Amino acid sequence: MEVSLTNNILAIVTLESNKDKVEGGGAPVFYVEDEEELEYVAMLISRLTLSMAHNLGNGVYILVKH
User: Is residue 12 part of a domain?
Assistant: First the structure.
């Protein structure tokens, strides 16, 4: 029997400037310095967790396992 997490937010990646706007609520939050690091960290975590990185367009990526 295989058990896996699906349709869940696995992580949040956001800019340091969004610290007051983003809370994990059970998902880890990764804070980064700039847009380049934001894209890189989101891509790297999505590859490691086999999840999809969704850009919310406001300096926040959510990583979701579908």
Answer: yes
